[in-house]
Amino acid sequence: MKIGFLGLGNMGGPMALNLVKAGHQLTVFDLSKPAVDQLVEAGATAADTIAALAKSDVELIITMLPAAQHVKSVYLGDEGLLAHVSPKVRLIDSSTIDPMSAREVEAAASKHGNLMLDAPVSGGTGGAAAGTLTFMVGGEQADFDAALPVLQAMGKNIVHCGPAGNGQVAKVANNMLLAISMIGTAEAMNLGVSLGMDPKVLAGIINTSSGRCWSSDTYNPYPGVMDSAPASRGYSGGFGTDLMLKDLGLATDAAKQARQPVILGALAQQLYQTFSGQGNGALDFSAIIKLYAGGKDE
Amino acid sequence: MKIGFLGLGNMGGPMALNLVKAGHQLTVFDLSKPAVDQLVEAGATAADTIAALAKSDVELIITMLPAAQHVKSVYLGDEGLLAHVSPKVRLIDSSTIDPMSAREVEAAASKHGNLMLDAPVSGGTGGAAAGTLTFMVGGEQADFDAALPVLQAMGKNIVHCGPAGNGQVAKVANNMLLAISMIGTAEAMNLGVSLGMDPKVLAGIINTSSGRCWSSDTYNPYPGVMDSAPASRGYSGGFGTDLMLKDLGLATDAAKQARQPVILGALAQQLYQTFSGQGNGALDFSAIIKLYAGGKDE
Amino acid sequence: MKIGFLGLGNMGGPMALNLVKAGHQLTVFDLSKPAVDQLVEAGATAADTIAALAKSDVELIITMLPAAQHVKSVYLGDEGLLAHVSPKVRLIDSSTIDPMSAREVEAAASKHGNLMLDAPVSGGTGGAAAGTLTFMVGGEQADFDAALPVLQAMGKNIVHCGPAGNGQVAKVANNMLLAISMIGTAEAMNLGVSLGMDPKVLAGIINTSSGRCWSSDTYNPYPGVMDSAPASRGYSGGFGTDLMLKDLGLATDAAKQARQPVILGALAQQLYQTFSGQGNGALDFSAIIKLYAGGKDE
Amino acid sequence: MKIGFLGLGNMGGPMALNLVKAGHQLTVFDLSKPAVDQLVEAGATAADTIAALAKSDVELIITMLPAAQHVKSVYLGDEGLLAHVSPKVRLIDSSTIDPMSAREVEAAASKHGNLMLDAPVSGGTGGAAAGTLTFMVGGEQADFDAALPVLQAMGKNIVHCGPAGNGQVAKVANNMLLAISMIGTAEAMNLGVSLGMDPKVLAGIINTSSGRCWSSDTYNPYPGVMDSAPASRGYSGGFGTDLMLKDLGLATDAAKQARQPVILGALAQQLYQTFSGQGNGALDFSAIIKLYAGGKDE
């Protein structure tokens, strides 16, 4: 299929490469020349401007951008996609942004005649490279069905979450719970160890009991409990503290607009902000356990 | 085996019955005559006092009491177990109490020559009746091995957590994480639904993503998501709010003594205290989602 | 002086009336005809549109609007003030909005040649009627000096907080601390009373000790402690829960943009959201003490 | 008057000295010989044991001990005060302990025939030396009246808080509110400064507005705002972080026993525990502002 791809960063670059590998014809755009060059070497065509990409003969355009302000600018700006694209072209935004902004852009696309999906991902740069991302997709069922084969070239788990914006809703709700569970796991592990338990034994018990969660059984934050987790390699790699902080900002913003309390969610945001402010923004988000220094030295 | 059993409440009663059914000879004590009568009908022998039970020819005594003050009184009081029991008798306390108190009682037992295990359970009254409890056991390995067949008559999952007191440590750490996960799941579910998602779809996504936890995939607090959960029967039955509040009190107390911060744990305790104070102490602990009334009516 | 006044709501209406009473010639605009009529009866002139007001011969325009979106629209819109006003006219925005939006609008005004102040108020509708408001003012010193006599017709305490936007900064910082102190006072009062103290005696001790704060000594949330406080008249009147919730939203948003943790501030926001979601949004903000029902009935 | 004084630490030593200076005849006891020697040099008599002090001809005994366990041991132990003192001797405990323990000891004293007051202090070592402490006193009015002249030799502000235990209640309630206000002030100051305000200007505005509190107007935690505050001398001296942490532990314990939620109070305790665990336990409690490192470096 002829696909336009906009945004070739740490996530978008590998995702676009997987589309090329799957045999699609890609036209790409990014402000970074090296990022574009890498795709061109792999067989993609470069577009000079967003408008040029919009006016090319692609059937589908995928965007992967850092934040809502970029998504709004790229879609709604005077030189943006909707100003130049044909109504026949389908649109997929894989950026992680707040649900309200996603719905605002999708409403504009719909008014212009374009079918649009919001399809944020989870799985990190590793999943992007391996083509094993999870896509949480909002939009019409038929549009989802049509997009499925393309998304499957980049991911393994493709979930339809309901109408427009629901992909973003699912992502912020899941990631807020993830942050809460991770901090809770950090507290429970540190509490148990400070009271005399072996961390592996404690993790084993939790993982077969009602405290079990992804943060305890798949990504345990206590060093040495799981060889494969960032905790066992100095909290390098993985999903960064500042990315989690961004997602918690989206969750609490969305909650505010919905007038929905998220008490632990807001506290999790503040704890990640505190931890980031102490210079740890680049560490994996499971490093939050380091905020809990007490107990061991006394 | 000849076993003494002290404390025939909602949990202890069914546990003792399972021991009788498994062919053990029980001598029982409780302040409640009906509770004792039920066991006697099933084949047990009644002891008139704690001292009488201690002086009978039992090889093992199991206690199941409401709180640390009762455990201390029953074991350490002038008319208590240690004052009258032979050093040969092995002791198991299945009460849920703070680890420090457990270790204090076990040290006294050890000084008196008795081997003692702390073996708190999870699984609720349903698990007690069905004989499917989880036992988290602290004490010496040989003593654990010797007690295993007896514990297996009352439970399915018997875990050795390390030296004396570690059963209690494992329980408070697990249950604190459980409370945090439950509140986090409640917030994430309410947030998603208030932003337009179907609760079953949202739960399905979380349960295959990184937010997955026992509270989301086995005991979801949102009504209608899981037929088997208390949320789908008005939050009746299950594990009561006030019981969770008690366990959170044990966790934060133990954390204070260990000088270990448990930020979300302490907030969870306060939210359960607030919810209980609003008259909901008898509801299942997943009913905490009702504290989050906002979002829907606006 | 010839003054334009835009926004004649609960606060703006009485403020404009005080300017008329002080002898100023007012040209006013509001979407509500009754609100405009009241000012016209008092001697003001009505403008039909924002553009008409901007093009009239006023020397100064004051705006008092509900939220940042209205401020941006009124100042920056195609039919807004900056599109039609002469560069000689000075501008004062008394709305409470986030500092970043205030600075954005002030930068646009400055580019257009207009001197602009942000001057949010505290003191409520009572202070607006009595002309005893506090104005927290951001902008250049000379512009502040020039505006002082006009502001003194509406308020008693006029404080220069530094350059553009700092009026808003001072207001959100103060009100966030106010919310935290109020909840803290509610907790301390309820704790003391539940442990057996007389509320008046407790308040008296706190008010001469290190716990002393405006919420304890001027606006005590415990019923009966202070006859003049909303707590002693069913939490009617005063500063509404939903208004405090709005200000806490501004504070946490500004904190997020500044990457500054506000842990108690964010929790205060969530507690007010929870309380509002339980149907209490119209009560005075000191009613948050009602969230703490526990202790008394047990 | 002939007075016995037990506990000559950082607080008790200077308090006892002030009694000697006021002309009272003191008999003192402490485990530390240097502490006793200092009082003897000033004119006091040393007692060799608690029992000896109890059996001497004193009319009043004052105790100043670190924690509830010491108070219980000194009063209720086999070799303690109540075992040896005449019922005519009046008792005053100035230790800061939980209200329930205070009431337990006072009930035992009352049963033995002794009038007893709980009289915890605030004002720190500086106030102890200068004789300007605040005493919060629980007990009968007549006993309070009788003790007043003695207490006035050690303090400036002597407040009767109601029946036995209420001195402790007033202290824990006040200090919990103090901790919350201090953290709130730290957040508000850091928020304002990170958004561009001068800290002195911001403090000045808060101190004349509704955010005003002792922590902002008398003990501001931002360096340089108040020359007299610990913040302006590296957070040395003052009221230590670990002492505040102890008082927050008493407050949350008392709240738990009263089934009274203290949401911000519990979070304040956790933040002080976190801060202490990062190695700051000896700093003045206003140093908690250092936990909020964010905002400035980004």
TrEMBL record, chains A, B, C, D:
It is an enzyme of class 1 (oxidoreductase). Keywords: Branched-chain amino acid catabolism, NAD, Oxidoreductase. InterPro entries: 3-OH-isobutyrate_DH-rel_CS, 6-PGluconate_DH-like_C_sf, 6PGD_dom2, 6PGDH_NADP-bd, HIBADH, HIBADH-like_NADP-bd, HIBADH-related, NAD(P)-bd_dom_sf. The active site is at K171. Belongs to the HIBADH-related family. PANTHER family: 3-HYDROXYISOBUTYRATE DEHYDROGENASE, MITOCHONDRIAL (PTHR22981:SF7), 3-HYDROXYISOBUTYRATE DEHYDROGENASE-RELATED (PTHR22981). This is 3-hydroxyisobutyrate dehydrogenase. The gene is mmsB.
